[in-house]
Design brief:
Length: 215
């Protein structure tokens, strides 16, 4: 039997993903987020784990360096990689939204046209504003998106929120939802054909475990 290589994302989805996969027999010793080992293998079950940065994960899966992976829908939409999306895992729920400083909320969506938007998600932001018929100036940032309108870099932001606490603490107000997101199981297209039975069984087992956890 050949190895099934699973890519795990660093960050908020990591721990839950490791636990859920272990319940369906996909585990190995010392699968921890800060592992010094780049590849962690279980010789007995022929499962191999790689732990990668969130935005890189779909790239590893698309090019076959990993057979499957777990990643947020937000990253999938932003990266637009050529992979199969097999299952909505149902956890890691959050949403991409547009927010503005509380004192700069305007009556209509179109009133924000031509403003500057700070975001980690430029592709998703452009797609969203195009649908609204709005031309915006997009500024791509990699961190502390909430800071941009406070210091005058942008008038508004497009960012991922879970609870909205950080937004409120920085006196920003959510004015539109771009899309909802949660963790997804994805697969390399060639791996899906070559290891079809194994991956199909894994999907069914995961569905059962996730349903059990919900109950």
């Amino acid at each position: 039997m050949e190895y099934l290589t699973i890519a795990l994302p660093k960050g908020k989805l990591f721990d839950r993903s490791v636990k859920v996969l272990a319940k369906v027999g996909c585990d190995a010793d010392n699968v921890v987020e800060d592992s010094r080992k780049l590849v962690i293998t279980n010789e007995k079950t022929k499962v191999r784990f790689i732990i990668v940065k969130t935005m890189d994960l779909p790239v590893y899966v698309e090019y076959g360096a990993a057979d499957i992976g777990i990643i947020g829908k937000d990253v999938l939409k932003e990266e637009e990689r050529d992979v199969y999306e097999l299952l909505d895992m149902g956890y890691g729920k959050c949403h991409l939204m547009m927010a503005v400083p509380e004192e700069k909320v305007l009556p209509r969506m179109m009133d924000y046209t031509h403003m500057r938007v700070a975001t980690k998600y430029p592709h998703s932001a452009v797609e969203f504003f195009d649908r609204q018929g709005m031309q915006m100036e997009i500024i791509k940032l990699n961190g502390s998106i909430e800071l941009a309108p406070i210091v005058g870099l942008s008038e508004l932001i497009v960012d991922i929120v879970e609870t909205g606490t950080t937004i409120r603490e920085n006196h920003l107000k959510e004015v539109a939802t771009v899309y909802e997101s949660s963790a997804r199981l994805i697969a390399n297209k060639v791996s899906f054909k070559l290891q079809h039975e194994r991956i199909k069984k894994l999907v069914e087992d995961l569905k059962a475990v996730l349903k059990e956890e919900e109950a």
